[in-house]
Amino acid sequence: MKKETENKLQLIPKIERYIEYMLNVIMKLPRVEKFNIGNEYKQSMYQMLEDTMYISKTTDKKKCLELVNKIDAKLNAQRIFLRIMQKQRWIDTKKFNVTMNLIYEIGRIIGGLTKYYAKNDSK
Hints:
The chain is an all-alpha fold.
């Protein structure tokens, strides 16, 4: 139980840092793309943060696993958005790599939570 709580507590500030960084990146996108892909990206990040908040409030392990899986799916979508942004040269390689590292850190925690809840769900 201690590891699960630590992962939950680590996740929120990491997502917060990631969102702050990405908001700065999105603000520098070309005008049209800022309002198109930028809005989709922001919505995905905010929903991910909201789902994370629900995890910390939910006691039902099955519901937690569903939320963790939703967050993982949102991270995968954000990776795709990032690749599109880089291929279109809306962001440079440095911003792409920094963002991917932030997503990687979040993904590691999400992976740990997924294993924890999947293991405890089967009992």
